[in-house]
Design brief:
The protein is of the alpha/beta class. The protein has 23 helices and 18 strands. Helix 11 packs parallel to helix 12, helix 15 (about 360-385) packs parallel to helix 18 and helix 15 (about 360-385) crosses helix 22.
């Protein structure tokens, strides 16, 4: 009876119960994955259970590929029509990577002998309840199934047993995925143990089995290991057990992906230090906000030179490290040229208090992060000079107009500039003393010399202003506010004269 069960293709599911018909065996190459098999009659149905043992990225990619093969769907449908029970235990990541439910999968699930279940975390269950269709397609509870004589119990199972159910689930799957706890097998390296790098490591520890937090100073690393905190950069926030502070940049070789959270002017040197250690296919996500002074390149362009062939991404948006570390709601943009990579990274990094929006506009996202720092210095100067709320609002609005002109002249999408990484980050950085750029401007507006106003703290806007204006002039883009800030920082003009110059510019139509 079991001779026909010669090959079974996993087809993107965590468990799959089916007898594969001969046409499928002759027309498709079986996927080689480690499996265990148990079988037996159950209420008149033939049942076969398969479980994936390996969890490597290669295996998941192969499984997702087979799920998109129409021959797999035909095989399952043929088995169901022959009175074979087909039980689909969907793995959320594989289901997502395959694009969710399509018409063929919906038709399969609709057959009488077919049922599908999605294993989910309890938080996912609570979230999904708000998207149930009339409360009929979502049922939760315990499910018992036999495995080689052993009875196991699955709790918190989402049951999808109709086309309407699968369709509703597919529509809202991305919202579920953004909130689900990513499997703990994932690993991450955070290169840079400043405040923002530390906050990202703390957030990522919820969904990763291991997070390496790299710092260049061995004494700093030793202190973090001993105290299980980073009191030097983000005091008062404890590390989860998954976080391991390290001083060896080779740690990136053990990570699925890498967050590069170093100053923009150190980015090339750090990327070169990672060369030879990174896994093939591991994405390097730039979290710096600036432009390289010597070359005028944005960070993803620097990465292409320093680490050719390595996938690149950028994370940016309105975010303060202390807010993220203390579980306050935060939303940012993650951009990568490959939409699939952006979606995967968003899923891996998402947390209950961290929402990520994906994009493919890397340059637009990086321009917003770089230019807003310079404009934030202008707003700080106005507040330090006590010019009032009206002046602050005018600077914010006209500064955004400069950002839009500068970004779109380089091919950035207007919707990117109007999003979190552009307008959102500008609004936050231009309005809060938590911003180093705003604080620098505030001190200058209060009478301090530009060279001393930073009080020893790294301020990306001050390092970006000159090269920003060089690029603007080469593009013939007017940026009078950024130009005035650059002149102030370079001691070419006093604050009062810069204000007079901005207010006495020729009248023109608003644009």
């Amino acid at each position: 009876m079991l001779r026909a069960l010669k090959y079974i293709v996993l087809a993107g599911f965590f468990f799959l119960a089916v007898e594969a018909p001969k046409p499928f065996l002759s027309s498709a190459t079986p996927v080689s994955v480690p499996i265990r098999v148990a079988y037996g009659p159950s209420t008149g149905f033939e049942t076969l259970d398969l479980e994936l043992i390996g969890q490597s990225r290669k295996t998941i990619d192969m499984a997702a590929y087979v799920l998109s093969d129409q021959r797999v769907i035909e095989a399952l449908s043929a088995a169901a029509s022959r009175n074979v029970r087909v039980r689909l235990y969907l793995d959320p990541e594989q289901f997502r990577r395959a694009g969710g439910a399509n018409d063929n999968i919906l038709a399969l699930i609709h057959q009488p002998n077919v049922s599908a279940k999605m294993k989910a975390e309890q938080n996912d269950i609570m979230h999904l309840k708000s998207y149930a269709v009339d409360g009929r397609w979502l049922r939760t509870g315990s499910t018992n199934f036999s495995w080689s004589g052993e009875t196991r119990q699955d709790n918190d199972v989402v049951i999808i047993d109709s086309p309407e159910a699968a369709g509703a689930f597919a529509v809202h799957f991305e919202k579920l995925w953004a909130r689900r706890v990513v499997r703990k097998a994932a690993t991450l390296a955070v290169v840079g143990a400043g405040a923002w790098g530390t906050a990202l490591a703390i957030s990522a520890a919820r969904s990763h089995a291991k997070v390496w937090l790299w710092a260049h100073d061995p004494l700093h690393v030793e202190e973090m290991r001993r105290t299980r905190r980073n009191d030097k950069r983000l005091p008062g926030v404890a590390f989860a057990l998954e976080i391991e502070p390290v001083a060896d940049i080779a740690c990136v070789g053990a990570a699925d992906h890498v967050l590069a959270v170093v100053p923009a002017q150190c980015f090339r040197r750090t990327a070169l230090a990672m060369r030879g250690h990174l896994r093939p296919g591991a994405a390097v996500v730039n979290c710096a906000k600036g432009i390289e002074q010597k070359s005028g390149l944005y960070m993803h362009e620097v990465l292409a030179e320093a680490l050719p062939g390595q996938p690149a991404a950028v994370l940016s948006g309105p975010s303060f490290a202390v807010d993220l570390a203390r579980d306050l709601p935060t939303a940012v943009t993650l951009a990568a040229q490959c939409e699939g990579l952006a979606a995967e990274l968003c899923a891996r990094l998402a947390a209950p208090n961290l929402r990520l929006y994906r994009s493919s506009d890397l340059k637009g996202v990086e321009i917003g992060g770089a230019a807003k720092n310079v404009l934030a210095i202008a707003c700080g100067i106005a507040m330090g000079r006590k010019l009032g709320a009206s002046a602050h609002a005018a600077l914010l609005a006209r500064g955004f107009a400069e950002l839009m002109r500068f970004a779109t002249a380089q091919g950035a999408r207007p919707e990117t500039v109007m999003g979190l990484s552009g307008l959102g980050d500008l609004a936050l950085t231009c309005s809060s003393p938590q911003s180093r750029n705003f604080s620098l401007g505030f001190a200058i507006g209060g009478g301090e010399k530009p060279q001393a106003a930073g009080h020893g703290k790294l301020t990306e806007g001050a390092l970006t202003a000159h090269i920003l204006m060089q690029k603007a002039r080469s593009l013939t883009v007017e940026m009078p506010i950024a130009d005035a800030v650059t002149a102030i920082l370079e001691d070419r003009i006093e604050v009062g004269a810069a204000i007079d110059g901005l207010m006495s510019r020729p009248f023109k139509a608003e644009s």
